[in-house]
Amino acid sequence: VTEIAAELPATWAVEEGVGIKQGRNGRNRCAYDGPSPPLGHGLHHYHFQVFALREPLELAAPPDRDDLHLLMKGKIVGFGEIVGTYERVA
User: Fold this and answer.
1) Residue 51 phi, psi dihedral angles, 5° rounding
2) pLDDT, tens digit, for every residue of 30-84?
3) How big is the CA angle at 33 (ends 17 and 63), to the nearest 5 degrees?
4) What are the boundaries of each domain within the chain?
């Protein structure tokens, strides 16, 4: 990863063929939905992870997180993580 764009419009989507692969999120969508914890539920932690792989993954369908971790096993050569917090107050 050499650059992560900031301030993308809400309508932005990954274009086919640009070398980016996107998996399914916690809402089973291939999209970034942003933090949205339940109102009054307290502080939530959001983990943003980047993996450098030794070789491209062969994906028949967009994987979920658990499937992705299995597919990457033994191929990870680098890793980065940022943890952000967010809370919606009632």
Assistant:
1) -120, 135
2) 887 888 888 999 999 999 888 999 998 888 888 888 999 999 999 999 999 999 9
3) 50
4) 44-86
Q: Any idea how long the chain is?
A: 90
Question: How far apart are the C-alpha atoms of 32 and 59, rounded to whole Å?
Answer: 19
Assigned token pair, 30: 């291939």
- Look at residue 62 in the predicted model and tell me its pLDDT: 86
The one-letter amino acid at 52: A
For residue 61, the Cα-to-chain-centroid distance in whole angstroms is 16
Q: CA 61 to CA 21: how far, in whole Å?
A: 10
User: pTM, whole model, 2 decimals?
Assistant: 0.68
